[in-house]
Amino acid sequence: MKGTTPLRGQPQIEVQTLEVTVIEGPDEGTTHRADTEFLTIGSAKGNDLEVTDSSVSGYHLELRSIPGGVQVIDLGSTNGTKLGSARIDRAVVPVGSVLKLGRTKIQLREGGAAVVALHEGAPLLEMVGETAAMRRLMAQIAKAAPSGVPTLLTGESGTGKEVVARAMHALGTRSQETFVTVDCGAFAPNLVASELFGHERGAFTGAERKHVGAFERADGGMLFLDEIGELPIELQPQLLGVLERQRFRRLGGQEEISVDVQIVSATNRDLRQEVNQGRFRLDLYYRLAVVELRLPPLRERGEDIPLLVEHFLRECGHAGPIDEVIDGDVMRSLVNHPWPGNVRELRNWVEATVAMGEASELRTHGVDLDASSNGGANHDHLLGLPYKEARARVLEEFEVRYLEHRLSESDGNVSRAARDARMDRSYLIKLLQRHGLKK
């Protein structure tokens, strides 16, 4: 979301912005200065710098001003981004650098300081955090929620996108109406349409009774489309049509049903890259991302970890001092941990610590931090066993860790976990059931 104009007396911070000038190509001489530290360049509308060069992808490049330079992220463009003769996908370059995008060359310059608003208090409903990154997000939520416009929440898995969606519902004009969630990646492709739009009895094999879909259930309220990046490409035109017309038919039905629904969607994918790769419709992206809010990963707001730990401990029923459960050394290790699973991983760690009565081991991508140098657990205790039994034990331990990691990375979405692991979905389900990870 663009910088929020602070109200008189509202807390604020300054951020360093960027200015980009086209020095070669069809748009030579064009200059754009961003109003935040982010700046996007491409040939599609909605970019900060929109160019007419047909060799530049729709969403070609994202730039971010950071201390010491400019972070450059190529968004899966067709012709790539070059610094000199080197093609770069993700890099930090000095201010003043010249980048080549297709037939276009741009020069990066400092754009000066800009002011962005912060939320005045520390908590916002269920959102916890005092860092500038979180208070900035809270201010954006408070501004976007009453507008009712379609909002896209982006960020890594576990950053709390559903918590943000519920905050937007509570702060919006539909707070007394229904909040409905659909995980677009949790259903088989042939069932997603039924979950969204409903079906009549007999619409397909197994449709033994009428089903009211999420759009009908959310009429007058908010529909939260989680993992929207997983929506099958063949269903995207249907969703676009409903968003444009606010009308639809149930599967197998003849009657058109009108609804009034506020849409908030979320994804851990970069939909701009999905658009470039032809996996997500550009017109649907426009519809969903009228406002886009970025959720920071936990590693970028480590100072919030003590607050979050206390919040989760209280949720678990611990009413005493925090250091009864987590001493200073452990808390410092939590603050310095990379948290690949973000806030969800931290919550799970706190719950495990309370359940066990002592601090749980910290893991990185499912592997013990104090494991042996080969990157896994130390299996010396198995060396005295027969080979076949020792091998079976090691394999079992690996499978459990691997499956837990895949489920964590996919937010529990088995279909996506199977795709990421390049496994047959039915075989993955059997493994999960074998190890007690799925009923």
Would you kindly provide a brief summary of this structure?
This protein is an alpha/beta fold and 439 residues long.
Q: Identify the strand order in the major beta sheet.
A: 2-1-11-10-7-8
The main sheet comes to: 6 strands, antiparallel
The mean pLDDT is 88
C-alpha geometry: globular
* Low-confidence runs of at least 5 consecutive residues: 365-376
Q: What's the tally of helices?
A: 13
Round the Cα radius of gyration to an integer and report it.
24 Å
Q: What helical percentage do the residues reach?
A: 25-40%
Helix-strand makeup class: alpha/beta
Describe the model.
The chain is of the alpha/beta class. Helix content is 31%, strand content 22%. The chain contains 13 helices and 20 strands. The strands form five sheets. A six-stranded antiparallel β-sheet has the order 2-1-11-10-7-8. The chain has a five-stranded mixed β-sheet with strand order 4-3-5-6-9, with no helix packed on it. Strands 13-14-17-12-18 form a five-stranded parallel β-sheet. 34% of the residues are buried. Residues 365-376 have low confidence and may be disordered.
